[in-house]
Specification:
With 344 residues, the protein is mostly helical. 65% of the residues lie in helices and 0% in strands. Helix 5 packs antiparallel against helix 6 and helix 9 crosses helix 11. The N terminus is likely disordered.
Length: 344
């Protein structure tokens, strides 16, 4: 049953980017990867694909947001303090989840969800749009073109969605003072957060921390794009799972997740720190002057391992999020196809 459900998954390498797969290519015979059913591309209009992609990313976000909350807390814990010199209310993914529940209740695991959904919709929508243009221009047919187009599209999407990610980080970091880590912005709601930031620092303030977000998504997108399909094929070649099965997709996502987590986590930590740091009256960060300064300060004060805080939560999120995105994408596309008049 699982194999039948996943049989229509868009299988090209471009369907495995971090946080959400791109739409199937418009030229299936030339671009579809091994195991992909021919004729998948073009069955749904590009505009519908864009909306469905953003919707699927949001659905996956609902299920993986608890790991985002835990990841944020772990990355802010012990900020700019030498290892072993600070209390650690969050220890590992599972124990951190327990700490969040004790402090904020079960609802605490879904903190920042509304902002996360807004980010997913904006970022993925723009990524789909940009990638489709690159595909129409034929850039993805060149060697490395798919990876480059995915990275550029991801960077543009990250820029557009940056204000939502900023607010998401603020809300996910907020908790009781006994277990608080990082600066506490104390927003009442997502709307209150946007209003407060805008009133204090104007439109520019909404894009504070974007210098960390753009390389984060670009690197994560390119790394997953380059490894997901090959990892999925590898587990099938070794006969761990049957090709096209749910287990093969999940295993491919988890194997690929190792490479993505290792390459992306330092950028993720920097992004979280830049977004959450306190600012002065002029909107300048009180802890970090920018992307490079953040990396240098973390490395010198917390050691190189400080750049890998929260890597467990990052890794555990990558595989399931990729698989869930693919699953929701496939089901939503089927629904649209069934609604289309014959001959379209």
């Amino acid at each position: 049953m699982a194999a039948a459900t996943l049989a229509a998954f868009p299988g090209p390498p471009s369907a495995s980017l971090h946080e959400f797969p791109y739409p199937p290519p418009k030229n299936p015979p030339a671009a579809v990867g091994r195991g992909s059913p021919p004729g998948v591309g073009g069955s749904v209009p590009p505009a519908a694909d864009l909306v469905l992609g953003a919707t699927a990313g949001c659905l996956a976000c609902v299920l993986t947001n608890p790991l985002e909350v835990v990841k944020t807390r772990l990355q802010l814990q012990g900020e700019l303090q030498p290892p072993g010199t600070y209390p650690r209310p969050y220890r590992g993914v599972l124990r951190a989840m327990g700490a969040v529940c004790r402090a904020d209740g079960l609802r605490g695991l879904q903190k920042g969800l509304a902002a996360g959904l807004l980010y997913q919709g904006l970022m993925n929508g723009v990524r789909f749009y940009c990638y489709s243009h690159a595909e129409d221009a034929g850039w993805t047919r060149y060697p490395g073109g798919t990876v480059a187009a995915g990275a550029v599209a991801g960077a543009v999407g990250a820029f557009v969605g940056s204000p939502a990610y900023l607010v998401k980080t603020h809300l996910q970091a907020q908790t009781l003072s006994a277990v608080a880590v990082g600066h506490q912005h104390n927003h009442e709601s997502i709307f209150g957060a946007f209003e407060s930031i805008y009133k204090q620092h104007g439109v520019v303030g909404l894009w504070r921390g974007v210098t960390g977000a753009v390389p984060r998504v670009a690197v994560g997108s390119a790394a997953q794009l380059a490894t997901f399909t090959s990892a999925k094929d590898w587990v099938c070649e070794h006969q761990w799972f049957r090709e096209g099965s749910w287990a093969a997709v999940l295993a491919g996502g988890m194997v690929s997740g190792v490479a993505v987590a290792v390459t992306m986590t330092p950028f993720d930590v920097v992004s979280t720190r830049l977004y959450n740091q306190p600012v002065d009256a002029n909107g300048m960060g009180k802890l970090y002057r920018g992307f490079l300064d953040c990396i240098l300060q973390i490395s010198s004060r917390e050691g190189l391992l400080g750049l890998y805080k929260g890597i467990g939560a990052v890794y555990l999120r990558l595989g399931p999020h990729t698989v869930l995105s693919l699953f929701f994408w496939d089901e939503l596309r089927k629904m649209v196809q069934h609604q289309q008049p014959p001959g379209l």
